[in-house]
Amino acid sequence: MNSHKFPEDFLWGGATAANQYEGGYREGGKGLNTSDVLTNGSHTVARRITWRNPDTGETGSTGMGFGAQMEVPEGAVLDVIDGEYYPSHVATDFYHHYKEDIALFAEQGFKCFRLSINWARIFPNGDDERPNQVGIDFYHSVFDECLKYGIEPLVTISHYETPLGLTNKYGGWLDRKVVDFYLNLCRVLFTEYRDKVKYWMTFNEINIMGMAPYMGGGLIKSDEQSKAQAAHHQFVASAKAVQLARELSPNAKVGMMVAYGVTYGETCNPADQLMVMEGSHWAHFYTDVQCRGKYPNYKLKEYERNGIDLQMEKDDLEILANGTVAFIGFSYYSTHVASAVKAAEQGGNFMAGVKNPYLEANAWGWQIDPTGLRIALNTLWERYELPLWIVENGLGFEDVLEEDGSIHDDYRIAYMKGHIESMADAINLDGVNLIGYTPWGCIDLVSAGTGEMRKRYGMIYVDRDDSGQGSLERRRKDSFYWYQKVIQSNGTELD
């Protein structure tokens, strides 16, 4: 019989990101970031990035460069322009509701709360000589509010919000100078919050650089050479941040965070299984570098075949070796199927594959596979033997607000229940060291991929729609009370 026993110190909580949740985009001295020039979209209409030519006054927009180069005219800069709606500007307004929201998290029983720092709130242009004290004070207030309720902050240092100044002036993470600007941020964070934050992650879903380099690193260029070079700069920055934390905040634990999923071969055709192997290489490249401290041979050979020439400084490899992470945080949403004969379709979280006939999906095509989570946990644990933390897990649904103000989201409860059961199996049957679970969008927020509000993940409903209308009132969904019981029982009560 399977046991649902979890460790006594297991960290139950929820996850958010500043660019999708915080709002207050020009308040308190905050500068613009790459998310602030992303328009709204839908699951049929792509989000766009807006630009302005300061010399001619011309304005326009371009796509985010998924598999294609972004089209930004020479002389133009990315900027906010009139007549467009930018969901991140208000999002669901944590900036003004943080005390109310954290009180709701405490009511649920959260042991931890994953959030991110809005880099441009600390360094408005990214390369400023001095940090913005108002921004520093804001996060002090947020962390104090968490600790008041005994909630441990889990903080992502950079989550899809490179300061826009670094993109317009330097081309984002393609420029080596951005490593030092990032370390300036880390130095402030590790010094200011050393007594308040124990757990850090250096980058959100660092492997998204390979698919969406604008989101992952503020890149306008999306060719393979640029993505590889920018990824290298983030590897070096992460490793240096790990070493900096050891110096400035020795009690802190610094981990990495990756978008992770399992790939199945559609058939026993060896060609399908070869694609699975190649998919494994893609899935583990970033974790191999950050956990093992070196580039894997399969990636070096790929770079060699494709003519990619990484520019490194003489001690970069030593830095990577000495800056390995303390734990692995990962997002898990769905699994994927590789076929050598069928064309891949867009799947969940920027991933692609063919449809799995054994799984159900939501309206956005994200397939539901709790068993895949157990496989993912075992794969990561066997490969690295580092503590694991599921820092994102969830599925977007279009919730219905009933006339009496209730929201009945049995589908979300069923999704979470299946995944928590797989977590328990991985711990109790397989011996995996899983330390925490923070389901994505514990409160409703803006979708990163589509810019929608109707694609809701939260256990707390926020009155806000796709056009930015609504009171921002918070309401508890049925899943709120269900997850409250899960935490109170430490995972033993799932019905």
From TrEMBL:
Gene3D superfamilies: Glycosidases (3.20.20.80). InterPro entries: GH, GH_1_N_CS, Glyco_hydro_1. It comes from the Bacteria. One of its GO terms (molecular function) is beta-glucosidase activity. One of its GO terms (biological process) is carbohydrate catabolic process. Keywords: Glycosidase, Hydrolase. It holds the Pfam family Glyco_hydro_1. One of its GO terms (cellular component) is cytosol. This is 6-phospho-beta-glucosidase.
